[in-house]
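Journal club prep, shared notes

We agreed each person brings one worked example of a sequence with its structure written out as tokens. Mine is LON peptidase substrate-binding domain-containing protein. I'm keeping it raw so we can talk through how to read the token line rather than staring at a rendered picture. Sequence first:
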Amino acid sequence: MQQYQQLPLFPLTSHIMPGGRMKLKVFEPRYTRLVKECLQNDSEFVVAMFNNEHATTSSDYLLPYATTVKIIDFEPRDDGLLGITVEGKSRVRIDEHWSESDKLRFGKIEYLENWPELSLDNAADKLKTRLQEAFETYPELSELLPDLGYEKLDWVCSRWLEILPLDVYTKQELIRCESCLKAKEYLLDLIR
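Then the structure, token by token:
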């Protein structure tokens, strides 16, 4: 059963997966509007990867596979900007998108099933160990995550896809899959 919704879009070069958290800086009026409306309505918006090979007016500017997020915290920053913390909720596909008069983008969103929970297996233990090392070396990567789900393969793969600087097409190919198994194989090949 396809469930569609119209949601505001926040284009970024980075990506967040369900269960992940990210801090964002808001300074443009269109995104101030997005934050205000989402807080007033207790609603979600979509963090979408953009393809900088295309013009911002192109239908190919935003890549289709994305994640809805919910604002879980906000704070005025010393630099005068608004800081928000978001948490990834659902995998989605952006079927079409457009800009309103203030240039805030909206999209027709199809909800997808989140990756099923899978236990970490022996083959993927190296992914867990290397992720723990990355989080220990760069604590800012893990400071937002209250639950470090190292025993769940889907959680480990999701965190890797958030932090690795993969090209957008590879990342899209992996996050569009119905489970984390293809991501697991790709990541294992990468760290071998």
